[in-house]
Design brief:
- The protein has about 220 residues and is α/β, with parallel strands linked by helices.
- The protein has 11 helices and 9 strands.
- The protein has a single domain, classed as Aldolase class I (TIM Barrel).
- Helix 2 crosses helix 11.
- The mean pLDDT is about 95.
Length: about 220
Amino acid sequence: MHKKEKIIQAIVQQGVLPLFFNPDEKTSIQVTEALYASGIRVVEYTNRGKEALKNFRSLKKACSKQYPDLILGLGTVQDSKTALKALAYGADFLVSPGYFKGLAKISMEKNILWIPGCMTATELMQAQESGLGFVKIFPAITVGPGFVHSVKEVFPDLLFMPTGGINSGNLESWFKAGVSAVGVGSSLISSSLMENQDFEIIKTNTGVLLKQIAAIRSSLV
């Protein structure tokens, strides 16, 4: 199995892709440690501040030593320059808020997993045409589970991961709509938890979320 497929499989198996950014390098490492301790093996570090790439590089180095089985990707990638830099720093995969031809080209040339953000049937067609099988529905809160439910039959070969506004209260409706995983950010790793260094709470809440997803999935079988 190719690395791309392995990463998709790991995200789908996990059921959730936790995503976060913190301007502090040490805090970023501690959050990742808490996620790993809860059972998470795939993490998205978002490119949402001027320190993001520098922190990502340090995070990747630290994880390679400490957690060699952790798959680490860079999110909020909006241009080719950032994508190439992230790959040079060892990013295992890339995630974007939208679809961009230049990134589709890089993902094909470098044979790496790129997860584009889509919120229309047109964007889903573009993703499919580019040979992408795993897409992020973003912003999920805007389109709602009904969107996935409606397009799933038309795009049977695509796997969907809604991101943006996902929390424990609406999780079930998304999985019932047929998503393969969910992207979860601030409802799991809030700024206040990071600010207060509440890494133990992040670890506990992530463990609870993983159990909730497992319970939802088994009820849908």
